[in-house]
Amino acid sequence: MKKQNLTIVGAGSTYTIGMMMSLVAEKEVFPLKSITFYDTDAKRQEPVAKATEVLLRDKYPELEEFCYTTDKKEAYQGADFVFVQIRTGGLKMRELDEKIPLSNGVVGQETCGPGGFAYGMRSIKDMIEIINDVRKYAPDAWVLNYTNPAAIVAEALKREFPEDKKILNICDMPAAIMVSYAKILGCEIFDLVPEYFGLNHFGWFTKISDKQGNDLTDKIKNSILNQGFIPKDAEILNDPSWIQTFKQVEVMLRDFPQYLPNTYLQYYLYPSKMVEKEDIENTRARQVINGREKRVQKLAKSLISANSTEGHELEADIHGRYMVRVAASIAYNNKETYIVIVPNNGIISNLPKDAMVEVPAQLTNEGPKAFSVGEIPRFQKGLIEGQLAYEQLTVDAYFENSYQLALEALTLNRTIVDAPLARKILDDLIEANKDYFPVLK
Ligand SMILES: NC(=O)c1ccc[n+]([C@@H]2O[C@H](COP(=O)([O-])OP(=O)(O)OC[C@H]3O[C@@H](n4cnc5c(N)ncnc54)[C@H](O)[C@@H]3O)[C@@H](O)[C@H]2O)c1
Ligand SMILES: O=P(O)(O)OC[C@H]1O[C@H](O[C@H]2[C@H](O)[C@@H](O)[C@@H](O)O[C@@H]2CO)[C@H](O)[C@@H](O)[C@@H]1O
Ligand SMILES: [Mn+2]
Q1: pLDDT reported for residue 273
Q2: pLDDT at position 61 over 90
């Protein structure tokens, strides 16, 4: 098995140490020759990198090289895979994405509604620059992007790089949900075969089977309806916000029993409830700043000062394992099935061909080969079409520097609807994002 050279972009991320543990856990599946960290913020990257040096020395001694840099050439030259996990504007801007809509009585969420719009307008420019840099130094590398909002980033990258077939956008949410299904069924997530359709953070499982073809969907539905639904991935197991989110799956399934919903549909189906439960002074960004970010910084510091992993709680999570398994299936032509984001091109036959849809695909060394979904029912189709138009108008607004298209995008969003309210939120977001948004004329 050829060993891979991997570059992590945005290596100062709160997810990096978890990703390192996933690379350790999956080293037989995705063996590495080198890992390179790249981040534009040297100060944020350094402690994560120094902690990773300790971690890799103890847990991945066979790795030939680890380095970290802010130099693009050093970052990308020789890379076989590039994982991208940046956050333009940082968690500080995420907090505003959540607070500004809430202060206008609308869902405040980083990837859904106006928060997702603002995050998207910030992410696109940096993502385009990253792809151009990667292609300059590593023309054949596979880019796995999970930078959010993945739906908007995927739409923008498809337009900017139409010929580039080695960019794949991925989300871990379907996999995190499947971890809970696996727990219900008493098996492992990778034993399950999903059937799923939708847009990123906007989709449904239509069927879950085992590898022998037994349909397990009703077992899962009955368990959720009778026993509720809880997160099971280590990363989110004890997190009150995620526990509440998974609880809402039961409500969604009672109201719309046909399919098993992605957790993110709660923001579109129950926007009033989502606004009511929020504390504007303690939105999710604040919880992450005081929670995951602090925890990771403390862990990094402790690994560095101990100069050993002994006595440290280091666990692989589904976020990292999923990305690594996706990469392995591409690298070694494993032809395994994972849910990824791809151009529709008739996969969902009654949705536009140019939509970026989230569906199961067989992952080969030539990229994803998505399975046909066929026609989807009117309810889901209607919801998706509205959301898709919002996402595409957001990207139109970015490329055309258009205030009008941005206003249309936000007016279409199910979490807003009212045009004067959309205008007010848009003006507030533009004001707060002066350093990031393109000029919208
Ligand atoms: N797709 C998914 O399902 C999924 C799952 C988890 C996280 N994410 C995404 O992963 C990203 C990281 O999340 P986080 O909470 O750890 O954020 P974070 O702010 O902790 O980390 C992001 C890092 O990216 C760096 N960065 C910012 N702009 C950059 C650029 N242009 N080039 C290089 N580095 C840059 C920052 O300095 C920072 O170190 C976010 O986009 C988040 O939404 C996606
Ligand atoms: O609010 P956050 O920052 O905790 O989470 C936002 C991300 O939520 C999803 O990812 C989950 C993932 O599903 C779970 O398995 C675990 O690894 O935690 C992740 C983050 O907590 C979502 O898919 C991402 O797009 C969001 O960035
Ligand atoms: Mn996601």
Answers
A1: 98
A2: yes
Question: In 393-403, which positions are buried (b, 16+ CB within 10 angstroms) versus exposed (e)?
Answer: bbbbbbeeebb
**Residue 172 is a catalytic residue:** yes
Active site residue 403: no
Average pLDDT score over residue span 351-357: 98
pLDDT tens per residue, range 106-147:
999 999 999 999 999 999 999 999 999 999 999 999 999 999
Residues 30 and 141 in one domain: yes
| Residue 69: inside a domain | yes
b/e code 17-42 from CB counts within 10 Å (16+ = b): bbbbbbbbbbbebbbbebbbbbbbee
Give residue 318's pLDDT.
95
* Residue 210 domain-assigned (yes or no): no
- For 21, 53, 68, 247, the CA distances from 301, given in Å and listed in that order, are 17, 12, 17, 35
Q: What is the pLDDT of residue 235?
A: 86
The range of the structural domain enclosing residue 407 comes to 387-432
Verify that 152 and 42 share a domain, yes or no. Answer: yes
**Is 92 inside a domain boundary?**
yes
CATH number for the domain spanning 139: value is: 3.40.50.720
Q: What is the pLDDT of residue 234?
A: 87
Residue 278: both structure tokens together: 């929020």
Domain count along the chain = 2
Pocket of ligand 2 (CB under 6 A): 148, 171-173, 176, 233, 235-236, 284, 288, 317-319
Ligand 1 neighbours by CB, cut-off 6 Å: 9-10, 12-15, 39-41, 44, 85-88, 90-91, 126, 146-148, 150, 171-173, 319
Angle at 53 between CA 50 and CA 59, to 5 degrees: 145
ipTM of the complex model? 0.98
Claim to verify: residue 311 and residue 392 sit in the same structural domain: no
The pLDDT > 90 percentage for the chain reads: 99
Q: What is the average pLDDT score of the chain?
A: 98
Where does a domain end: 317, 336, 370? Answer: 317
What pLDDT digit, counting tens, does each position of 149-187 carry? 999 999 999 999 999 999 999 999 999 999 999 999 999
